[in-house]
Amino acid sequence: MRRLIGRSLKISAPVLTGLLGMAALCLAFWAGPAAAEDVVGAPHAWGMGLQEAFGPVKEAIHDFNNLVLWIIIIISVFVTALLAYCVWRYRESANPTPSRTSHHTMLEVAWTVLPVLILLIIAIPSFRLIYYEDRARDADITINVQGRQWYWHYAYPDSGELAFDSRPIPTEDLKPGDLRNLTVDEPLVIPVGANVRVLTTGQDVIHSFFVPSLGVQKYTIPGRTLETWFRADHEGTFYGQCNQICGTNHWFMPIVVKAIPQAQFQAWLDEAKKKYATNETAPPAAIAAQPAAVATTQLAEAGR
């Protein structure tokens, strides 16, 4: 095959080998993220830009990011072209006697009004995105998220006193296929297609609940309850981390969200109620926090 291609195109063997190698590298580059089908929302090697969107919130973030990116590109091209023109047009050889003009009313008005208009173009969709992320509309499920040093505590107030801790798995205990520094013992399980209301609070210091591929990021602040929401439109596993410096083990505070079909979620819910009924795996602090989690949800509902 290589000889046939080389003869028909009259390409030398070293050049042909290099081209084929580059083609294989490109195929590996594009196929890398897709090869790991079970790892849906996670960073991958040679990734560029934002993580792929798997929910409406992240899609809205992508749209706003693309809008701002194109505005930046247009401004950069315009400024670069204008600078190049000024250097060429007003060089010493072509303009031996430079003008001493220090004011130009129309020019000064233009470079004041145009940036204001650009900021308005950015501000309007920016505010819309902020309000879109702020509160859940017709939430199907509510989950209380509490950041602790250095693990996460999840509670499902819609399902009674279901609550559990999610802790990172050390590198030496990882199984084949697990992601280092991102795998946990108990993931946050949600149904696919459900609007998930998230109520965050902190136990000790400020943490941040951040899952990039779902577009959710909210601080967990002691003494305060904050609300946000997300939805996973695809079945899969989505990884995140605390992105607020919260102490010595801040780097080791991963988040795993697992989206499964509604029937499987109901089966998991029934099993989880039995598994965590006596809270044998939860420390005393987690048991004490459960009534507070339910009260937090009721307080948030009253304030809506």
From TrEMBL:
Domain Cytochrome oxidase subunit II transmembrane region profile: 42-137
Keyword tags: Copper, Electron transport, Membrane, Metal-binding, Respiratory chain, Signal, Translocase, Transmembrane, Transmembrane helix, Transport
Location within or outside the cell: Cell membrane; Membrane
Transmembrane stretches, start-end: 67-88, 109-131
Cofactor: Cu cation
Primary residence: membrane
Signal peptide stretch: 1-36
Domain of life: Bacteria
Reactions catalysed according to its record: 4 Fe(II)-[cytochrome c] + O2 + 8 H(+)(in) = 4 Fe(III)-[cytochrome c] + 2 H2O + 4 H(+)(out)
Domain named Cytochrome oxidase subunit II copper A binding: residues: 138-271
NCBIfam families, per database record: CoxB
Role noted for this protein: Subunits I and II form the functional core of the enzyme complex. Electrons originating in cytochrome c are transferred via heme a and Cu(A) to the binuclear center formed by heme a3 and Cu(B).
PANTHER family (UniProt xref): CYTOCHROME C OXIDASE SUBUNIT 2, CYTOCHROME C OXIDASE, SUBUNIT II
Entry's family note: Belongs to the cytochrome c oxidase subunit 2 family.
Name by which UniProt lists this protein: Cytochrome c oxidase subunit 2
Underlying gene: coxB
